User: Fold these one by one.
Assistant:
Number 1:
Amino acid sequence: MNAEALGLTRRTAGGEPGEGRAIPLSDRADETLAEDRAATGDVHETIAADRALVLTDFDPPSVTAGERLLRLAYRIGIPGSTLASPFRKPARPRLLATVSSPLAGERAAGMALRAGHFYVYGVKAPIAQVDFGATAQLTPPFERVIHGFTWLRDLEACAPRQQCTGVAERVLTRWLDANPEPGKGPAWKVEHAGLRVMNWLVHAPLILSGQDKALRMRILDAIETTTRWLDRNAGRAPDRMGELAAWCAITAAGLLLPDGKPRLLFGEAGLTRALGELVGDDGGVLSRSPLAQMQAMKLLIDLAACYTARDSAVPDAIGKVLALMVPPLLALTHGDGGLGSWQGSAAIPASQLAALIEASGVRTRPLREPRGWGYQRVAAGNAVLQFDASPPPLGRHARMGCASTLAFEFSHGEHRLIVNCGGAALAGGQTPIRIEQGLRATAAHSTLVLGDANSTAVLLDGKLGNGVAEVEIDTRTVQLKHGSARRLEASHNGYAQRFGLLHKRILILREDGSELRGEDLLLPSGRKGKRGKVPFAIRFHLGRHVEATLSEGGKGASLLLSDGSLWQFVSGEPDLQIEESLWVDGNGRPHPVQQLVIQGMASRGGGNFAWLLKRMG
């Protein structure tokens, strides 16, 4: 099937022989669209980077004048035991309740621990060979698991507790020997220390049920010592997610350790402030990372369980934030129930997401009108379209930030046709850490790349630099000759300074999900277009089980899915190519996949490139 048959005709532009321009979708009203006659649900706005993620305000905890004074005194350094019981000896360290978390761990990782290995994103590391000290060279995922003690949840999930306590005590003893007191190194990153205290408290029976009383006292002393360190350092975390882990740990310790009321008041105030600076007004975390969203939810769910263990009312702020955070997360689900690959996250499987939502107790629907979260979602028939129509997170908020503006993912039923590579935040397991920065690049996403450059600068340590500062977005429902469709139009200025061009993308998804039309336009950012040309590439990374075959003429490709269904991709450009690519699944495993690439030289005066993805039969 040729381009003309699918409505993707070409015309010559600018009098330059051989330089073709596809007819813009916006010019085809007489052929396929009647937008002006029947547009409904129109939304048009400009989103600037400094307002793309709006901080959420939460009411501070209601306290009496005496409690405010108590909190102030604790903040300036007066010990909690002195404030709670000034005429009594400090209470011996002990836990006041046993916590029952609704979150379950990964049984396979727990079984590996019992067999003597840490198991992180598909990679086994013998416990006996792991260096727990400050100078150890561990990848970020292993650092988080080992120093954050997130492995305790997995160990508890794999067998009855009495069969696991010995393993937990042996590993913890080795860690305590290597880290006798607060210091430097990955163990004393604020986030890792916060995670460690939370997991020690929530999974205390695993580490405190043994017969060694000396070890038990040593562990309780370590909990108190680490929490006192967090009291002083919670505000020094490099980002809000690190602060959240610290404040959750401080609050949990205030609930579960003796003489904890001053610390609890201090922790709740810090927690409320941290939540207001972490979550945007539509419930998405400022990093725009689905993985970070899930990690924040897990912390809050565990903290709520700590309140329940003490028969205390869970603060309204925690319940409100959880209720806010679920809808945007659901908005990034595909037909298979798993998440899309955005901002360093990977295709988290449906089972993990469902378990998290179940534990949260929140029952709701996907977010319909994203603002700060920035991901547009269109569900049509069995198809789901996800579109990044917002500036990337600011550098101070980014966690494995990606230059993904105007990228999209597309699925039909349980099949993902167009994806992003994803998985930068999981690099360090089976996915090599050396390609982490490449997975964050614009070329690792299904969008247009100009001059082989990122639309936003990708820096080290997961941060982002200059680039996209503004995105204009317009959404509407349009009438076609046969039915209706949802039309998304967005543009960004990430290439304006370097190349003098704006990138605009138009996506039109038919109401039955059988057809996705697209057009990528390059528009001069100034009044006059510049002379010369610049190389461009429009990349469409294909799903894991999609087999692509070029059609005759090089303008299209057949996409065969594992269930035997066939999709046709057609471009208005003559040189469509199939290249190798990489896709990281939700368990951190990289898979070789293919990508369709439209590439060539674009005029600095502008250009447009249309394409069509259509289900056949």
Note: The chain has two domains: 4-52+364-616, 65-278.
Number 2:
Amino acid sequence: MNFTHARRACICGLVAALIIVAATFVVHARSTDSTSPSVIRLAPPAPVVDEKVRLAELAGRRQRIARELGPKSVLILFSTEPRVYANDVDYEYRQENNLYYLTNLKQKGATLVLLPGNESLSEVLFLPRRNPAAETWTGHMYSPQEASQVSGVKEIWDASEFDSFVAALRNRQPFQLKPEKVLLSAGSTADARASVFEKLFAVAGKNDGDLFMLLPRVGDGLEYRQEEKFAAGWTRTPTGFNLKDATPIFVALRLRKSPFEIALLQHAIDITTEAHERSWLAAADARWEYEVDAQVAYTFKLRNADHWGYPSIVGCGPNATTLHYEESQGRVTPGELLLMDVGAEYEHYSADVTRTFPVNGKFSPAQADIYQIVYDAQEAAARASRPGARKSDVHRAATEVIKDGLLKLGLITDRNSMQYRLWFMHGTSHWLGMNVHDVGDLPGAAEPKLEPGMIFTNEPGIYIRPDALDNLPDTPQNQKLIAAIRPAFEKYKNIGVRIEDDMLVTPQGVTWMTQALPRKMSEIETFIARGRREARK
């Protein structure tokens, strides 16, 4: 696929991104909160965007998608199905990312259809008709006018007509839409609606039409069950339309963030920064990890985040050595480190920020040894981050520093082996955006090069798990290794350190979107000391 236009627009436009953001968004002065220590960086109110600018952004996204689809195609995007929590209780509803990317609609039951080859009717939204009885129980549904105001789509039809629409497309028959099923129209006539498939039928007759959908890969079935079911039914009989996966098109466009998206993600990061800092101060009086975790949940609600982007990780002491520790049921013990990996989600954009800090406010010499290695690795990763580099280059830069540090501490005996994986077992970076592990890498495709507008994480770590040596295979080589590193292991065991920041690629290198949150050991210690001293007054 040809994404030249999208790349060029992003690279040229990002140079002036700050100017564009300033002209587009009106950000109010920083919030005040007389009950919080002054050292805490309170998240500012959400950016306010001009409606014309927002709708132009959505229209531009749909146009770019349509351009990549081509005139012989149809795109169908379903909204997310509700997820069952237990019995008759659903999880909080969250819209499918790509549909939200094109419409900003949060309601279930909506379906977007793009028809790039039909100049008079190129986009249609199928929307459930409002039901006052249902709204009594489950809340307000979009009216057609509201859905149009939110999305910018001007042609809205009753969702009950979608099956007939698809049947007509499949069977190459004229589509007869009843007038009462048109919920909103920008002026399309009955003749225009009846002829919506004419060009498509011509290419279908040559088996040259394309039907694009989000086709689930292995492991994606739970999120895209209705797409999987639809695709299976579509391929049972010849239709003249080749079923194709729209995922690569969305991946290429979503990978490069616009100034509009960057501002939303920055707000999620600002909320997350406040949550971290509140938690650092609260840890002084906490007995349990869940008390610290409560500060995160409180801040997210206080600042009107949609939710967390992923379950919060709040682990003290040995729990900090478990990468995805989510229980928050352990003790908070003075003298130990507390690792917090948390991220607020705002308007579908998720922050992802990790800090590791001493509960008592002061790093011990052993803790400082490990922390400094991770900090230096993160600095090396940032220096390697520039347009033209790849995430693998960033990871390699961090890994080399960690190898040297582990060798110096006696935790490995050979820096040129895989021994370091005992203590650093994950990658340094992943894409960030509408998912905490956002789209960007496709199976079988070449690793993308960093370009302005891309956002990724920088998160090296070292985890000295208390049972790490016990779980090594019993071989002569491992016995020799264990004997050699045992003294260092006993000195550093139960220490887990991860530092994670969110990086925006610029023409010159990267911007640390999380730069407001203290990261150096001295900065963390100073912040905690000042904040706790102020809280005691």
Note: The radius of gyration is 26 Å.
